[in-house]
Amino acid sequence: MTELTNLQNALLAAVAGAEDEAAIEAVRVAALGKKGSVSELLKTLGSMTPEERQTRGAAINALKTEIADAIAARKSALKDAAIAARLKAETLDVSLPVRSSPAERGRIHPISQIVDEITAIFADLGFSIAEGPDIETDYYNFTALNFPEGHPAREMHDTFFFNPDEKGERKVLRTHTSPVQVRTMEAQEPPIRIVIPGKTYRQDSDATHSPMFHQVEGLVIDRKAHVGNLRWVLEEFCKAFFEVPSVTMRFRPSFFPFTEPSFEVDIQCDRSGGQVKFGEGNDWMEILGCGMVHPNVLRSGGLDPDEFQGFAWGMGLDRIAMLKYGMPDLRDFFNADVRWMNHYGFRPLDMPTLFGGLSA
C-alpha cells in the first residue's frame, strides 16, 4: 500500500500545483490517460487473485476516483479564475458618462464679460447704462457731434452708408457710440451720468481692427463738471478694471470734434516678460480718448453751454479686453471657435463684482 500512498500524494500535489487549464489537463493525462500511472495499475487487476482484487483492486479504484474528483474540482476552479481574469482584462463600460450641466459647459464671451465688469465699476460710481440704435442718421452720427461738412470721417473709406431713402437721406451704421450722448441729453435733464457700451462699425479689418467692433463711452453733464473730475473717474476705472492698487496716467493734448479741450490718455505699464502689466514699469500705452464736451454738442442736445458743462471719454472694448486677458488677435473674437471660447471664455455663474473680484 505504500506504493499507492506515494502515488496518491504525488498526484494530489500535481493537481494542486496546476496553474491553468492546460496544466491540469496534462496531470489528467499523466494519471488517468491510456498510459497514465493510475491506468497502468488498473491493467494489473486481471492478473490478481480474487483475494488481492478485493483489497488492492479496491484501493486502486478508490485512488482513481479520488484523483478524478480532485482533477475535476481543480479544473473547475481554474476555469472560473480564467473567466474572471478575462472579464477583468476586457471590461468595457458601455454606459454613457454623466453629462455636465449647461452651467458647467457654457462660457461667457469675453466681450460680454467686459461689459459686465464695466457695468459693475461704473454702477458703483453712480452711473447708469444707456443704449441707442446701431443704424443712425447723419445728424446724430456726425452733425450733432460737431463734425463739419467734408470731415474725413464722413467719407466712404471709413463709414458704412446705406442707399438713399425716398427723401434722398442716407443713414449710416454708427461709427461710434457717441450719438447716444446727444439722444440722452435730449431726453434727460441734467445731472447726467451714463456709460454707453455697444457695437460700432467702420470699414477696417486686420489683427487689431474689425468692421464691427465694440466701444464704451461715458458722459457726465452737470453745472460744475471739470477736468479734475474726469481724471479721477478714469483713474478709479483703470484701477478697478485692471485690478491694480494704483495707476499713473498721462494726458496729452489731442483733437476730437465733439470735445474741447481734448486729450489722449496713456497709462503707465511694463511690457517686459512678454505681457503688459499696468501700474508699474517705465512704458506708456494709449488707453482712451476724452475731453470736455464741446459747447456745440451741448446745444445739439438742447442744453445751454453757459449753464451746463460736462466731460466724456471713449475706448474700444475689444482692445481693453485684449490688453487685460492677453488675447493676440481681434479677429478671434468673431470666429465662433469653440476651442477659443473654452480657453478665453468665462464661467456663466462667476459674475464680476468689486468685492469679489471682476475676473475671479
TrEMBL record:
One of its GO terms (cellular component) is cytoplasm. Its EC number is 6.1.1.20. Mg(2+) binds at residue 260. Residues 112-348 form the Aminoacyl-transfer RNA synthetases class-II family profile domain. InterPro entries: aa-tRNA-synth_II, aa-tRNA-synth_II/BPL/LPL, Phe-tRNA-synth_IIc_asu, Phe-tRNA_ligase_II_N, Phe_tRNA_ligase_alpha1_bac, Phenylalanyl-tRNA_Synthase, tRNA-bd_arm. One of its GO terms (biological process) is phenylalanyl-tRNA aminoacylation. It comes from the Bacteria. Keywords: Aminoacyl-tRNA synthetase, ATP-binding, Cytoplasm, Ligase, Magnesium, Metal-binding, Nucleotide-binding, Protein biosynthesis. It is found in: Cytoplasm. Its cofactor is Mg(2+). PANTHER family: PHENYLALANINE--TRNA LIGASE, MITOCHONDRIAL (PTHR11538:SF41), PHENYLALANYL-TRNA SYNTHETASE (PTHR11538). NCBIfam families: pheS. Belongs to the class-II aminoacyl-tRNA synthetase family. Phe-tRNA synthetase alpha subunit type 1 subfamily. This is Phenylalanine--tRNA ligase alpha subunit.
